[in-house]
Amino acid sequence: MRAFWASLDRRWRRSDVGMPPLRWQACLFVTINAVILSMLLFDAPIGASEAPAPVKHLGELLTGFGDSAWLIYTSILLFFQGRAGYKLLKTARSKAQALYVSWIGAYLFATVVFSGLLANLLKRAIGRARPDHFHDYGMFSFAPFSGHSAFESFPSGHATTVGAFFAAFALLFPRYRVAFIACAIWLGMTRVMVGAHYPSDVIAGLAFGGWFSLLAAIVFARCGLLFKLAPDGWPLSKRLFPDIEKPGAL
């Protein structure tokens, strides 16, 4: 493990790529306005009523995807399986594939775990009451660090995990990014279907998880792992085995 961290340190030090100038102010502005509009237009109707039984049942079937535990275990498995494959396999191509899988596991672990930890800290610090307490406290009731799960609504931890996971895959496999974004929205909104969160909680969680995955991808690109930085600073997924032009091809 010491050799692993030493390798990362060497990669970071020898890279001359700086952190890109992302337009985070504009994105933060859009996110804040989306959250505020959702609070003003959608949160009160959601809190004052209950989703129809078929919608709630659908949400209950799908919402477990946002539980971070299985994603963490899967990412750990990918990492160690890849490292083991790198040591045991013989051909250079197989070793490269195994190493690639191990870094995907490390990237998913970092995005899911650390975004989840920060989201949980935030929702405890903010202390917004959940929708099932709407009639008791309203939708603008806050009890920071109350220690009670009833006041841990904003942002949604499940939505943060979903946003981080699918943003990571959208960055790794950009060809399917539209499908990944659609999955993130649907699975994030299951938290509204089951009555656990307001729409604004989910929007904030999805945005937070997505941005965390993007920043993690930039750090990985800085280390020369999985991604490379485009001229505008956006992380692009590296191709494991780039196509080689045929001799004489124009």
UniProtKB/TrEMBL annotation:
Keywords: Cell membrane, Hydrolase, Membrane, Transmembrane, Transmembrane helix. Pfam families: PAP2. The keyword Protease does not apply. The keyword Transmembrane applies. GO terms for molecular function: hydrolase activity. Residues 104-217 form the Phosphatidic acid phosphatase type 2/haloperoxidase domain. The chain crosses the membrane at residues 21-41, 61-80, 100-122, 154-173, 178-196, 202-221. CDD domains: PAP2_lipid_A_1_phosphatase. Gene3D superfamilies: Phosphatidic acid phosphatase type 2/haloperoxidase. Its EC number is 3.1.-.-. It is a multi-pass membrane protein. It is found in: Cell membrane. It comes from the Bacteria. This is Lipid A 1-phosphatase LpxE. The lineage of its organism: Bacteria, Pseudomonadati, Pseudomonadota, Alphaproteobacteria, Hyphomicrobiales.
